[in-house]
Amino acid sequence: MGQYAGLGEVAGKRVLVRSDLNVPLEQREGSDPVITDDGRIRASVPTIKALADAGARVIVTAHLGRPKGERDPQYTLAPVAVRLGELLGAPVEFATDTVGESAQQVVAGLAEGQVAVLENVRFNAGETSKDDAERGAFADQLAALADAFVSDGFGVVHRKQASVYDVAQRLPHAMGALVAAEVDVLRRLTVDPERPYVVVLGGSKVSDKLGVIDNLLGKADKLLIGGGMVFTFLKAQGHEVGKSLLEEDQVDTCVEYLKRAHEAGVELVLPTDVVVDTAFPSGDRTPSPEVVLAAEIPADALGLDIGPESTDAFARALADARTVFWNGPMGVFEVPAFAEGTRAVAEALTKVSAGGGLTVVGGGDSAAAVRTLGFDEAAFGHISTGGGASLEYLEGKELPGITVLED
Ligand SMILES: Nc1ncnc2c1ncn2[C@@H]1O[C@H](COP(=O)(O)OP(=O)(O)O)[C@@H](O)[C@H]1O
Ligand SMILES: O=C(OP(=O)(O)O)[C@H](O)COP(=O)(O)O
Q1: Quick one: angle between helices 78-88 and 39-53, nearest 10?
Q2: Which atom of ligand 1 is nearest to the CA of 362?
Q3: Top CATH class, 2-180
Q4: Does 3 score more than 70 pLDDT?
Q5: I want to staple 322 with a disulfide (CB 3.0 to 4.6 A). Which of 23, 107, 171, 357 is the partner?
Q6: Does domain 192-395 have CATH number 3.40.50.300?
Q7: For the segment 325-364, what is each residue's pLDDT rounded down to a tens digit?
Q8: Identical fold at 2-180 and 192-395?
Q9: Model pTM above 0.95
Q10: Measured in angstroms, how far is the CA atom of residue 293 from the centroid of ligand 2?
Q11: Which residues are annotated as a binding site for (2R)-3-phosphoglycerate?
């Protein structure tokens, strides 16, 4: 328990652990949602188990998805608590609220070494509030449930949120084993990475992640852009993108990035072809994928993957890499018709690893993608549980959930 030395003896103490249990769920008509990848739950187990084994009364707090500060049944953590119990090999109590009567009762009933999960912390508006007082008031309620706090949700350490940041100011605190291990690997990418250093970006959290490019242009040798990021860049190049994901207010920023990449000699690789469909894939619809030139996306279509020509170009750009960081799937990989770009990038990374290079895959969905597409985790240097968090760490930004632990 050296990791938690700052907390003193944990036996008998109520220890609040912030984990990142934000796993992909498939909603199924008429039955409970199914966890399609439990990687983040598995990654959270060692810290929870170590504390429970040491006799702590462990209270796990976490979020799922982005509910809008109120109860939303599709984002309940109940199935996650069940899975955590299976992985721990011990029953896990579940509180049907986060800080209310149920939470208080469940915590009061916890024996030494027992584990409880509180309902989705984002069902409370205070969690993500930009107002310090509102966030603080909610953090007070969370802190009242516990004697100590362990921060182990690496995927959220870039969020200045009550259960990540404010609660650490209110309780004796320590960094969890997962956060410590993640930071250890990522540090290797910031200190003199072996070159060429290639960063691959994709996914759908476009507004969150476009900003990181600013900083990466000064660090990486090549930047490969796929996924939902592509279309704001294509628009910046003067192309129409139909119904694709687009951050209209970021187009000028992308124009600037294109210019700066050119000036800095950074190779910025954008897809030249994309796989489109006329609607976003949904359960009851058979996809009808079509490959079009990136410069000629029809008005009624939306881009859902990078095309075959781009896939080859991305693989070529990765072939001589010695360090690679990849965050964000290249397409809607959950649907086989739009998974090829993601598969090809994953394949290219395994080759870099096999040749002795360092590859890091970061992000809940990116990690889930490599696993669900059948890749062996051992074929990558490191699979990080955090996408946005890793990117901000690599940028050299201060991560509120980590700096707060240093105070
Ligand atoms: N072109 C696209 N349009 C819309 N969604 C996309 C596109 N490409 C990828 N996605 C979606 O992005 C999601 C993952 O994005 P993100 O959360 O940013 O990644 P991560 O969790 O790895 O950080 C996936 O669910 C995938 O379906
Ligand atoms: O999924 C997450 O981040 P990621 O998609 O950047 O890996 C984390 O659980 C954080 O979730 P958030 O981006 O809704 O704050």
Answers
A1: 60
A2: 22
A3: alpha beta
A4: no
A5: 357
A6: no
A7: 999 999 999 999 999 999 999 999 999 999 999 999 999 9
A8: yes
A9: no
A10: 31
A11: 40, 122, 159
